[in-house]
Specification:
The chain has 16 helices and no strands. It has 336 residues and is mainly α.
Length: 336
């Protein structure tokens, strides 16, 4: 049973992450979390720096490797797919695009987080020239260091860093780690509910583990600040989610030739974009109004098996019974 379970999980993961849409979608969702935590300007300036500086990419990879951020992206994928043999090579090849996207997302997260943390420290200490966050006030600077990067006076000596204007090596390591772990997710058992680590339940949480961590980030770094009167992170999250949802939707339309007339109203369209951008995080499946409740709540490995059997059955019977909006009309026009 364990062997069948592992095979089902690995092939569901590799096929699910192998599509042309997987890489771009993951990239957009990663940018949403970056913008939520740090703002649009720092993220854009980081990409501009990467495009204009010869040493920027080298420095970014160096910072990322220092805390195993790139290895974390490898582990996030390889915990689900086979690692050895022909099967492992095939599955690793299928997930190449996703692997590259994961590394870029985490690398940019680390580089941006380090710059943002340094700017916040300069604002609090009054020492040094601020780069990305020139208009940041001291309350926001302290929130970023204490809440986003989890540097506290008690456990990490933040007060001393503010006094000297410099982070210690341990503080810098934690900043690097939190930069990618919060924005890109880290499905380590330490950060997961205990039941998700059960060997029989864990495969059923495929694709939900990262979603759980990202949802946690939105709660801690967008919802909680809003409760205290700081609405900027939540406003950034909603705006970035809708923008990502629009980009993902347009990608789907171009790839699958879906008819945009299926959108009935502005309200429905906004909701669809919000859900497409995974605005509900861990619960995004429940927000997809074009899917029934069973589809939204069925674990990925079971859906994969059901679709595989259904597809083979249709091929055997010579019948196509498409549920995707617009697909049936396309097939009729093509004479299928």
């Amino acid at each position: 049973v364990d062997g069948i379970y592992k095979q089902a999980t690995s092939w569901t993961a590799s096929v699910g992450l192998s599509g042309l849409r997987s890489g771009p979608k993951n990239f957009l969702l990663g940018q949403t979390q970056l913008i939520t935590n740090y703002g649009l300007r720092p993220v854009f300036r980081q990409y501009f720096h990467l495009m204009t500086s010869k040493s920027a990419w080298k420095d970014m990879w160096k910072e990322s490797r220092a805390i195993n951020a790139l290895q974390s992206s490898e582990r996030a994928i390889e915990t689900a797919i086979q690692k050895t043999g022909i099967t492992g090579k095939i599955q690793k090849g299928l997930t190449t695009g996703m692997r590259v996207t994961e590394q870029v997302n985490r690398g940019v997260s680390v580089a941006t987080g380090v710059q943002v943390a340094e700017d916040a420290l300069k604002i609090l200490s009054g020492k040094g020239k601020v780069g990305f966050f020139k208009k940041m006030n001291k309350n926001e600077a302290r929130r970023l260091l204490a809440d986003v990067f989890e540097l506290s006076d008690d456990t990490t000596g933040l007060a001393k860093a503010i006094e000297t204007g410099q982070f210690s090596n341990s503080q810098r390591s934690k900043i690097r780690f939190m930069s990618h772990a919060t924005t890109q997710g880290l499905p380590d058992p330490v950060y997961m509910p205990r039941f998700m680590s059960n060997k029989y339940i864990k495969p059923l949480t495929l694709f939900y583990r990262i979603a759980y961590r990202v949802t946690e980030n939105v709660y801690n770094n967008a919802y909680k600040p809003m409760q205290r009167g700081n609405v900027a992170p939540m406003a950034r999250y909603l705006s970035a989610t809708l923008a990502s949802g629009f980009a993902i939707e347009q990608m789907y339309i171009k790839m699958f030739n879906v008819d945009t007339k299926t959108y009935e109203s502005a309200g429905e369209r906004l909701w669809r974009l919000f859900v497409k951008g995974e605005g509900l995080g861990f619960f995004s499946g429940l927000g997809e109004t074009d899917r029934n409740f069973r589809q939204a709540t069925t674990p990925a490995i079971l859906q994969f098996g059901e679709k595989l059997i259904g597809g083979l059955t249709m091929i055997h019977n010579g019948v196509w019974n498409a549920e995707t909006s617009g697909e049936e009309e396309i097939l009729i026009e093509e004479g299928v």
